[in-house]
């Protein structure tokens, strides 16, 4: 069997990416429910939480927890 699969770039498989995505998923879920029930301040708070998630991912990546960071350990699939 030949190895013709492209090399995995590892994008999005870091603690920084997972943390950012989880925070933003929670924000969108809360914001959607709040929008459904017409609670405007919670919608805006959820939007702010989504921005916090984005910033958190960037800060963690700069702290070394991104894909190419020194604190990120690559796991191989065997």
Write the layout of secondary structure elements.
Elements: H1 15-36, H2 40-65
Helix pairs in contact: 1-2
Q: Could you please describe the fold and organization of this structure?
A:
The chain has 78 residues and is mainly α. The chain is built from 2 helices and no strands. The longest helix is centred in the C-terminal third of the chain and has 26 residues, at 40-65. It is elongated, with a radius of gyration of 17 Å. The mean pLDDT is 87.
Please provide a brief summary of the model.
The chain has about 80 residues and is mainly α.
Q: Largest sheet, described in full? A: none
Shape verdict: elongated
Taking pLDDT < 50 over at least 5 consecutive residues as the criterion, the unreliable ranges are none
Mean pLDDT: 87
Structural class per helix/strand content?
Answer: mainly alpha
Order of helices and strands: HH
Level of helix content?
55-70%
User: What radius of gyration results from the CA coordinates?
Assistant: 17 Å
Number of strands: 0
How many helices does DSSP assign? 2
How large a portion of the residues is in β-strands, by DSSP E? under 5%
Ends apart, CA distance between termini: 15 Å
């Amino acid at each position: 069997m030949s190895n013709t699969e492209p090399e995995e770039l590892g994008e999005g498989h870091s603690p920084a990416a997972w943390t950012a995505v989880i925070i933003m998923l929670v924000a969108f879920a809360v914001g959607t429910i709040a929008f459904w029930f017409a609670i405007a301040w919670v919608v805006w708070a959820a939007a702010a939480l989504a921005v916090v998630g984005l910033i958190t991912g960037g800060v963690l990546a700069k702290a070394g927890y991104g894909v190419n960071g020194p604190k990120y350990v690559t796991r191989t699939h065997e």
